[in-house]
Amino acid sequence: MRRPGRSRYTGRTRTGAGVRLRPMPELPEVETVRRMIAGVVVGARVASARAIRRAYVIGSATPRALLADGVIESVRRHGKQLAIVADDGRSLGVHLGMTGGLRVLAPGEPTPGHTHVEWDVETDSGHRRVVMADARRFGGVWTFASFEELRRRRWATLGPDALSIPDDEFADRLGRTRRAVKAALLDQRLLAGVGNIYADESLHAAGVHPGHPSARLSRARARRLGRAIRWTLDRAIAAGGSTVRDYRDPTGVEGAFAAAHAVYGRAGAPCLRCGRRLRSGVISGRTTVWCGSCQRGPDSRRA
DNA sequence: AAATGGACCTGGTGGC
DNA sequence: TGCCACCAGGTCCATT
Fold it and tell me: What is the pTM (predicted TM-score) of this model?
């Protein structure tokens, strides 16, 4: 039942009592991970911590550096980056890469494959094991003595978060680069949080061709794209929150999350707005899907 | 400045 | 069934 080119959204999902966080690393998924992890660990004491694969941790990988004996004060996010902050300031930077995921295991649940770091936390409702698993290991865990240091070393180069950037600032930033607008959206220094899926989805929602030179978008269209990004991310967070928990079996009904995609993974299928076949190509080194009819660009004849 | 291509890794999929 | 090429949500680097 899969359409050609359809992405594998189901990820790795199993039944079980534990809270499962599927590895899916764009802003809405990272935000979903943040909320779920925060709900479990904020206020909890870290009884022990351990790096199973030393190289996955950047910086000191001692139990203390990994927050052992600390109490988790907050779990924060900027773009696709996470920070887990203890009440004495010790902080972990967490990046999920392509396949990374934080998971809260149910009691007795076996350690998932590709687990590189594990924590034992004492929550109000008892002990929980939290693990970081990442098959491809593009992600990582960074250790810092303070959140300020984390911010300086890990977040300083990131642009404003895509969820909270004002439209005017977004338009200003787009106006400063002549790259294809899709390349601009993927540049985390310009805007933090948008990845390949949401770049395509937002561009379609705004009616902007991915190859349109960024600085040549009108102010109105740039602002419109900014609104489209927020609209798309907000919807994805809402849908992601429900999809992560509720297992959908791979042969049956699609989750709300996948169903929400207008273009990503739908190359060759009809545009949901105008019915024409969606096109695909490579822009900025990434597979890109767009509607040559709905998305106005600099070169609509080849679109 | 920006485009391209490769590297980093593993696993799933589809073709033969 | 097996083997193999290809592809994947993200960065990071070297080269043009």
Answer: 0.88
